[in-house]
Write a structure and sequence with these properties.
mainly alpha
Amino acid sequence: MYKYILASGEQSINWMAIFSLITFFLMFTISAIAIWGKSKAYVEHMAELPLDEENIK
């Protein structure tokens, strides 16, 4: 299957590269918006969790 895709010409490879680039930038943008959208109190709470001795079992 990969041999057919690679042998089918430059155009299919270009579209695969463009699709992967767009996918990367979309995921990066969505994750950046999700991170910057969190409240400061939530971020501080999550940062303190590994050091919190009450939650250790």
